[in-house]
Amino acid sequence: MKAQQLHIALLGNPNSGKSSLFNVLTGLKQKVGNFPGVTVDKRSGESAISSSLHARIIDLPGTYSLYPRRSDEWVSYNVLMNPATDEKPELYVLIVDASNLKRNLLFASQVIDLKKPVVIALTMMDIAAKKGLSIDVQGLERELGVPVIPVNPRKDKGINALKKAIDQTAKQLYKPPARNFIEAGEPSKAAIREIKKLFPRISDYAAVHYLIHHESFAFDAPIQETIESIEKKHGFNHTRVQAEEITQRYARIRHIMQQTVVEADPREKQRASDRLDNILLHRVWGYLILLGVLAVLFQSIFWLAQYPMDAIEWIFGEMSSWMAGVLPQNWFGDLIVNGLVAGLGGIIVFIPQIMILFGLITILEDTGYMARISFLTDKLMRKVGLNGKSVMPMISSFACAVPAIMSTRNIENKKERLLTIMIAPLMSCSARLPVYIILISLVIPNTYYMGFISLHGLVMTGLYLMGIVMSLIVAYVMKWFIHIKEKSFFILELPIYRAPRWKNVLITMVEKARIFVLEAGKIILMISLILWGLSTFGPPKKMQAVKNHYEQLLVQQPGNAGEIEEEQRTALLETSFVGILGKAIEPAIKPLGYDWKIGIALITSFAAREVFVGTMATIYSVGGDADENSLTLREKMRAATWPDGSKIYTLATGVSLMIFYVFAMQCMSTLAVVKRETRSWKWPLIQLFYMTGLAYILSLLTYTLLK
After folding, report:
1. SS (H, E, C) 240-294
2. Largest CB tally within 10 Å, which of 300, 482, 565, 576?
C-alpha cells in the first residue's frame, strides 16, 4: 500500500526551537531555495511520519503574529492566508516556547482560529522548569482544543509522540475547535458574514484578515471592489478591530495561564541569567568584557592552531621534496609538484584556523552571548545610522559576507538595511584569515607579553577591530547620502544562558572545514593550476630567447652554473604570461611596497580572497628549484628580494598588504549577492569603488609611514 503524501508547514515565533525540530524531522533530506518572488530562504525536507504517511515539510520564517511587518513575516502570512500562494499545506505544526508561553500563545491562538488542522509542539519545557514554571499539558490541550505534544529536539525527546499526533490529525481524528478564541463586535460580525458569502470555506477570523489585507491578495478587480464596499458599508476600521482583537486574546490567554500554569514565587531571588546580564550588559564592564571576548577569540586562533599548522606545512614540504625526486623532470612532474601539491598545501594548512574560528563563534551563539552583543551595541549603532539588528549580520560577516548580507532581510528599516549591506564586507571574513596569518607570521615577531599574550594575536585583533571601526565611520558618512526617512524600532528577545551543545559545535566545525575545502578549495586549486600554466609558459619566441641567452652563459661561465640557473628561473618567470601581467600592473602597486608577484595575487584574489595564499604558493614554487621544494611558503616569501637585493617582505610591506586586505572589496560573490538584495547594480559598484579606493589610500599611507 502506497504511503499517503502530506504537505506540512512548521510555524512559530523566532527562537522557539522551530529550526531544531525541522532538522530532527527531516534529517539530511533537506534542500534550500527561495520563496517565489522574494529573497527569503525556503527550507524544505522529507520526513517519514508513519508507515502510511510521508510528509514534505516546509520551515516557514519565524513570526510573532498574523500582522506582518518584515518581508519574511509576509512569507509566513501568505502561506497561511493568501489563496493564490504556491504553498498550500494540509497541516500545520505550531511550535510554542513553553518558557515564553504567554507571548507564544498570541500567535498560536490566531492560527488555531483559522480552523486549519494544527498540532502544537511544546518546546523549551526544560527551560520553563528552570524558570519555576509547571505546565499542565493536558489542561493546555483542553483549553486550546488542539493536540499539544511536549518535545525536546535537542535531545530527540517527544518526536515519536509528535509524529503520532500528526498522523492522527491527518486522519481527522482531531478536528479544529468549534469555539473561537475571540468574539467580533456586531459591525464586524455583519462584515464577516458578507465576506463568508464570497468565500464560504474560510473561518470567521480568516474573513477578518481578508477585510484587512485583501489588497495584498491576488483577487480579481470585481472581488476587490466588493470587499471595499463591504468595508465602507459596515464601517470596518482596521486599527480598531486589530486593537480589540489583541486585547481579547490576551484576556483569554491570561485565563488559560491561570488554569494551566503554576508560576514560581515572584519574590524568588533573581535568576542567575539576570545576575549575569547585570554584568555582561553593564554600560562600562559590558564593553570591556566584549573586547576581552574578541581578544581571546583571536588569540585562540594562534594558540590552538599553531601545532597542527606546523605539522601540515612540514608534511606538504616533505611530500613536495619526495615527489620532486621520484617524478620525471618534465612539465608533468612540475605540474604535480608546483601546481597541484603547492595548491593543495595552500588550502589544507588553514583548516585548523577555520575550524577554531567557527567553533568559537558557535559557542558564543549557543550560550546566548551573541544576542547580548546586539543589545549592548544598539546605542552605538544608532549613532552611526544603524540599530542593534545590524550587529548580527556584521558579526556573521566575520564568517562570510554573503549569508550575512542575506540575513539583513530581518531589518525592517530600509535605510538601516542598506547601510548594513554596504558596510558588511568591511568585517574581516574567514577568507581573509589565511592572508592575515601568513603575513603576520612573516613580518611580525613571535613575541609574548606576560608569558601568554601573543603579539601575533594582538595584531590579528587589531585588524578585525580596524574593519569594525571603519565600518562605523563609513555608515556614519553614508547615512547623510541615503535619503530614506523611516522610523525604526529595536525589539530583541534575550535567550536564556545555556551550556553550548558540543555536538553542534563539532558538527559546525567539520561542516565549515568541509565547505572551505570543497567550495573555496575548488577555486583555489583551479586558480593554482591556471597560474602554474601562466607562470610556466609565455610567448614562445621570448621564452626561447631567455633559454638561449642563459645556455650561452653556462657555456661561457661553467663555474657559476648554480647562480646562472637561478637567474634563468627568475628570468623565465618574468617572461611568462603571468610575469607580463604582473609587470604591467607593478607601476601602480609599487608605491604600496608590492612587487609584480604580489600584484598577481591581488588580481586573483578578486575571485576569492583566500586565493592569495595559493597564488603565492604556486608562483614561488614555479620560481624555485628542486632543492627549495622542502621549504615552506613563508620561508620562500621571507627570502624574496627586489632586484637590488633588498627584502620585499619588510614590516612596511607586510602591514601595508594586511591593510589592503582589510578594506579591499575582493569578492565577486559578495558583489553578486548585493546586486540581488538591492535589485540594482548601483550599490555593488559604489561598494567596489569606495572599498578599493579606501584600501589603496590607507595602504599607501601605511607603507609611507613605516618604510
Report:
1. HHHHHHHHHHHHHHHHHHHHHEECCCCCCCCCHHHHHHHHHCCCCHHHHHHHHHH
2. 576
Per residue in 651-690, pLDDT (tens digit) is 888 899 999 999 988 776 677 778 877 878 888 889 989 9
**Which residue has 540594482 as its cell numbers?**
680
Q: How far apart are CA 78 and CA 214, in angstroms?
A: 11
Q: Give the separation between CA 390 and CA 404, rounded to whole angstroms.
A: 10
Tell me, what amino acid is at 388? G
Q: How far apart are CA 240 and CA 128, in angstroms?
A: 34
| pTM for the model | 0.57
Residues 6 or more apart whose Cβ sits within 8 Å of residue 479: 384, 385, 415, 419
Q: Among 425, 421, 417, which residue's Cα sits nearest to residue 387?
A: 417
Q: How much is the CA Rg of the chain, to the nearest whole Å?
A: 31
Whether 281 contacts 329, CB under 8 Å? no
Domains along the chain?
4-170 (3.40.50.300), 186-262 (no CATH)
SS3 letters across 33-66: EECCCCCCEEEEEEEEEECCEEEEEEECCCCCCC
- 3-state secondary structure labels for all residues of 5-22: EEEEEEEECCCCCHHHHH
Whether the Cβ atoms of residue 618 and residue 339 lie closer than 8 Å to each other: yes
Q: How many CB atoms lie within 10 A of CB 496?
A: 15
Q: Give the C-alpha separation, 219 to 487, whole Å.
A: 31
Q: How far apart are CA 332 and CA 352, in angstroms?
A: 31
What is the DSSP code (8-state) at residue 325? H
Question: What is the grid cell recorded at 450?
Answer: 606576560
The three-class DSSP label of residue 4 is strand
- List, in sequence order, the alpha helices (H) in 424-501: 433-443, 455-478
Number of neighbours of residue 463 by Cβ within 10 angstroms:
22
How many CA atoms lie less than 13 Å away from 184 in the CB half-sphere?
21
* Model confidence pLDDT, tens digit, residues 234-290: 888 888 888 888 888 888 888 888 888 887 654 444 466 677 778 887 888 888 888
Between 122 and 386, the more confident residue is: 122
Over residues 77-101, the pLDDT tens digits come to 888 887 777 778 889 999 999 888 8
Instruction: For residues 81 and 223, give the distance between their C-alpha atoms in angstroms, rounded to a whole number.
Output: 16
pLDDT digits (tens, 9 = 90+) for 637-647: 777 777 777 88
* Contact (Cβ atoms closer than 8 angstroms) between residue 572 and residue 539: no
Identify the helix (H) or strand (E) that includes residue 94. Answer: strand 91-97
Of residues 384 and 389, the one with the higher pLDDT is 384
**Band (627; pLDDT cuts 50, 70, 90):** very low
Q: Work out whether the CA dihedral 136, 138, 139, 143 comes out positive or negative.
A: positive
Residue-wise pLDDT tens digits, 5-33: 888 999 988 878 887 888 888 875 555 44
Mean pLDDT of the chain: 78
Q: What residue type is assigned to position 179 of the chain?
A: R
* Phi and psi torsions of 295, nearest 5°: -65, -45
User: What pLDDT is attached to residue 626?
Assistant: 41
Count CB neighbours of 411 within 10 A: 24
List of residues 6+ apart from 547 with CB closer than 8 A: 568, 572
Nearest C-alpha neighbor of 381 from the set 471, 501, 258: 471
300: how many CB neighbours lie within 10 A of its CB?
Answer: 17
**Euclidean distance between CA atoms 292 and 301, whole angstroms:** 14
Q: Is the dihedral of CA 195, 200, 205, 206 positive or negative?
A: negative
Question: How far apart are alpha carbons 302 and 353 in whole angstroms?
Answer: 8
